[in-house]
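S2.1 Query sequence (Importin N-terminal domain-containing protein)
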Amino acid sequence: MKWRKMADHVQGLAQLEILCKQLYETTDTAVRHQAEKALVEFTNSPDCLSKCQLLLERGSSSYSQLLAATCLSKLVSRTSNPLPLEQRIDIRNYVLNYLATRPKLAAFVTQALIQLYARITKLGWFDCQKDDYVFRNVIADVTRFLQDSVEHCIIGVTILSQLTNEINQADTTHPLTKHRKIASSFRDSSLFDIFTLSCNLLKQASGKNLNLNDESQHGLLMQLLKLSYNCLNYDFIGTSTDESSDDLCTVQIPTSWRSAFLDSSTLQLFFNLYHSIPPSLSPLVLSCLVQIASVRRSLFNNAERAKFLSHLVDGVKRILANPQCLPDPNNYHEFCRLLARLKSNYQLGELVKVENYPEVIRLIANFTVTSLQHWEFAPNSVHYLLSLWQRLAASVPYVKATEPHLLETYTPEVTKAYITSRLESVHVILRDGLEDPLDDAGLVQQQLDQLSTIGRCEYEKTCALLVQLFDQAAQTYQELLQSTNSSAADITVQEGRLTWLVYIIGAVIGGRVSFASTDEQDAMDGELVCRVLQLMNLTDSRLAQAGNERLELAMLSFFEQFRKIYIGDQVQKSSKLYRRLSEVLGLNDETMVLSVFIGKIITNLKYWGQCEPITSKTLQLLNDLSLGYSSVRKLVKLSAVQFMLNNHTSEHFSFLGVNNQSNLSDMRCRTTFYTALGRLLMVDLGEDEDQFEQFMLPLTAAFEAVAQMLSTNTFNEQEAKRTLVGLVRDLRGIAFAFNVKTSFMMLFDWIYPAYMPILQRAIELWYHDPACTTPVLKLMAELVHNRSQRLQFDVSSPNGILLFRETSKMITTYGNRILTLGEVPKDQVYGVKLKGVSVCFAMLKAVLSGNYVNFGVFRLYGDDALDNALQTFIKLLLSIPHSDLLDYPKLSQSFYSLLEVLTQDHMNFIASLEPHVVMYILSSISEGLTALDTMVCTGCCSSLDHIVTYLFKQLSRSTKKRPTPMATDDRFLHIMQQHPEMIQQMLSTVLNIIIFEDCRNQWSMSRPLLGLILLNEKYFADLRNSIVNSQPPEKQQAMHLCFENLMEGIERNLLTKNRDRFTQNLSVFRREVNDSMKNSTYGVNSNDMMS
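Output structure tokens follow.
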């Protein structure tokens, strides 16, 4: 019998090995898929643990060892049915022995086994056996590896490195609070010892003459540096900094580590290593130095910080004096980051006091200038150098030290190097066909923002340079244009140089700070603005023949900065800039300057209508101008603006044309255009219906054309769609701008009832084409939105009810038809279906909460409009899987805000739903409570509060033996009583968030909690006892008292006064529980129970 079992095992192993080979080696996806399926079944099988051990013992291939290690990782990580403590200790010991006896495993197997060890250690950090924390002896576990061969040493160091990393990473399967408790305990008990160990081993290594050509010694040094980096990169206080916010980083080293940083040998160790090891490893050394340079300021007193900074600056000076490793791009990048940290963590006043400051700032300036001149090398690293100079320049007005900062000498050199190198790059890029940095708008914008501050330091020199370069480029450009035999390439080079100059001029003007700028500087701004406007006149006069898209985009960027600084309600009109504009260009005041803006906008829309980037940026500029209170009133007086208001047709503005767009989504910019026109029109519109009718003529004509097309059987569908989509986008812009009652009512009377049927017909015809339906639905959602109380109908007007009927009809038409599409592929489901559904939800929410319809009349008069809309909502909702509700942010926001309105005002409808629908809604609320989006989470709390309050009222009524309530109410109560686990689960979720997590919306969470407790008093008592019992014995009394105080003075009702008292009690409760838990190192078992 025993032999047969053994044979089965061996056969099973052979089978598993074949599957592993198929999974990792085959190129046939079907075979791989089958193997994957079989191995998933293996992972879930009850004898997985023993088979994994057999695989490790007897498996003949590395792949089977890898499978065993990953399966064991899954087993020890699972939250339901976890492995018993003894088993986990056995696995841990087995893995350590296995690694010790087999130091030459395949690298990926060693990695997977170390990962397994780290996972067991992390998850068992608080597990005790006979008062001993069994998984905490990490350094003891590793010591035997460190005393053996180099291979063993590498494994030992990698174990510590991987463990530090594992404990620092939050995982999604366990609560964040549990992760933070383990991370904090590891930080306090082990991390400093591990860091000290890694530094000592590095000292030993640097003391010996390492043979770094020997692969294993090279590998050991690399692992040691990674370990040091992981220790320094640890999330010490649980702020888990976002990787992208690199510059704002402060390393929150604990006070207990002071000794390591006060002793300059730690800093010296890394600088010495940098100079003694090959360039392939030095980026890791520099990464460690970046972290050390970012140690929080408060770790030192002033004298200590000055000493530390002095050693740091000396080290930087040494690297700059011996730059042989810097040509390596990774080294160069990390070194630039190190330079940036000099200013992000220390003040200019401290830097200038360092002994070698004059020499170091000269070296850094030379390094920066050289780097900028080699613009093609490591372009992503330039950001750090510019951020250093930006911060230095910004600090100049505040520096109190008597020592000279010398920035007036070096900053202009940096500015000059940036500007000249960008200009020189133009012809190289064209000649060699390289990628043009101007095409990366984000990068250019970031660098210009930095330059705007750097260039304002010693602004006279910046301006003189820009004027000189601009005049040269503009003169050459003009000569080339006038010459008959100039080549197109030469013209393109000059246009490229002018593009950079216009961008840079816009940036330095945008860098003006009102309190620090003088009249002379404003006059210099005037010099620069005059030149750009003169260039604009020249390029605009040539647009009929040719234009340069990049140069036009630079002009728009310049106009945007100019508008921000010199146009608007806060600007002094006596500015010297206007005096200069008046002398050179005859522009005497803001109105005349605005007419230049509008002239440019009209020119762009006329000549660049086919170029989407220019059109959208131009319209954004128009939109921004239409927002200012004083500027919009000045604009309306301009004849060019009156021209736009009277001639907004495709013959004047080609982007309004119907037949020239490549696809329907390109028409988005029309909404922006009409929003701006709507604001301009409203300034003088008042109640003048004739003026409104006049303005709407082109749109009336378009509507009539669509109506004409739709009335015949044979019409050009593409043309009808284009005309309609353009039209509804235009109308949405106008509707958005009209936010006062008089003008909005004119628009409403214009569109209803005459043109509403056309919109309904479009939805019927083209429901399957989202490019057509989404704009129509969005227009409807805008029309029913009671923005600024603009939808106030007269007492005798039925328009509110009629508008709701139209809304209901559109939602029902769209909803019923979109559901006929059946299964939509996952990658298209949002565009084809969910986006439209999301707009319908938003529309229904707007109309239900608009306060202009009395919804009681529908049932009273037997009108089914309300019922149809709500039933369609339910049908649409049930067709969406729960996961999609939370995966698509716009859908989740529109759904949860609609649900909030429904539970507040239409609870009778919710109560009448079928049990499976009620359960669907409740589980969506339950999932939403833990959503990352605070808006969704708050909406769920509010909806839950309405439901719980309704239930509580129904229960109170039924116990008072009032006349029998409606059958639906009984039914809802019945569903809840049949499924008490739903409400109980939400009670535990809310309590869990309040006690154990960083609860960002405590007030919202407190509102449904009281009702949940009152509906489930017995369950709450059990929950409370389990939380109390999970505390260490000495804390149980305090925790019990916290719960007593929570319910003190709380009555069994949901009156506002009682709720408010509960909310206050809850704040105190949360504070006390947190204080109690901060001082304890218990395992959060209760948390596991709730998760």
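The first strand starts at residue 128 and ends at 129. The chain is about 75% helix and 0% strand.
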